[in-house]
Each structure stands twice: as structure tokens, then as C-alpha cells.
Design a protein that fits this description.
It is globular, with a radius of gyration of 16 Å. The protein is of the alpha+beta class. The chain has helices at about 10-20, 30-40, 75-85, 95-100, 110-125, and strands spanning about 40-50, 55-65, 65-75, 90. Strands 3-2-1-4 form a four-stranded mixed β-sheet.
């Protein structure tokens, strides 16, 4: 497992995309995808490329008419965008070797129960909960 801390808004954005839930107004990552596509590019892949002093770094690879374009980004935003774009997510071998931890829980995750719990959270959450 690769433990990456992701904030609540980004985690919510990732789960909404995984569930195929569309909101009446686009979230930031929906806007990013729309901008990329409107400019004639596409998200090819996301890679977690580095871990330095407790911080992960990611790169978004875009396909453009003039060739690949690489954009530095936070892993949480990169993952949320990749999920929306259907793009693969990679982790550099050296990062995985350095930071991964074995899954020793032996637990089998009940995905349906986890998703239901998150749906209940979404039903109860208020946008004011995310203001600092």
C-alpha cells in the first residue's frame, strides 16, 4: 500500500468521480478536465514521481498536438483528475520502494459497505463544513 494523505475535499472529489456522481455545478477537477479537453489535449497518465521530506510530488502527462506536456501537480489533484479522465495512475519504482507499506491487515474490504457509508456522509455534509 502507498499511504498518501488526501484532504477531505479531494477525497470527496475522487469518490464522486469513482461513483459516477455528477453534481449540478462542476468541481475544480471537472473544470480542469473540461479546460484540457477544450484546448484539444487529453490526460494520458498521472505519476507519483517523488517523495521528499514527507511530501509526495506528481506529474500529469497531457497529450497535445505538439507532443506530450508534463505538469507538476499535487498527487490528490492528479488522482482526482485521472479518475475523471479515465487515465492510469502510476507510482515511480523508487517512490514505491521507499514509502510503501505492506498490507498486513488481512481484512477483506466490503466495498459496498464502504461506499454506502460514504454516501451517508455525502448526504449529511454541508458545504460550510469545508470552510476554514
Amino acid at each position: 500500500m502507498l499511504p498518501i494523505w488526501i484532504g477531505h475535499p479531494e477525497a470527496t472529489a475522487i469518490l464522486l468521480a469513482l461513483e459516477g456522481i455528477e453534481l449540478p455545478r462542476p468541481l475544480t477537477h471537472d473544470l480542469m478536465k473540461s479546460l484540457i479537453e477544450t484546448l484539444g489535449a487529453g490526460v494520458e497518465r498521472v505519476e507519483i514521481v517523488r517523495f521528499d521530506q514527507g511530501t509526495f510530488f506528481a506529474t500529469i502527462e497531457l497529450s497535445t498536438a505538439t507532443g506530450p506536456l508534463y505538469i507538476d501537480a499535487r498527487p490528490s489533484d492528479s488522482i482526482a483528475l485521472a479518475v475523471r479522465a479515465g487515465a492510469p495512475i502510476f507510482v515511480a519504482d523508487d517512490v514505491f520502494s521507499e514509502v510503501s507499506v505492506p498490507d498486513e491487515s488481512g481484512e477483506v474490504v466490503d466495498e459496498e459497505a464502504e461506499l454506502e457509508a460514504f454516501r451517508e456522509f455525502l448526504d449529511a455534509v454541508d458545504p460550510e463544513d469545508f470552510k476554514s
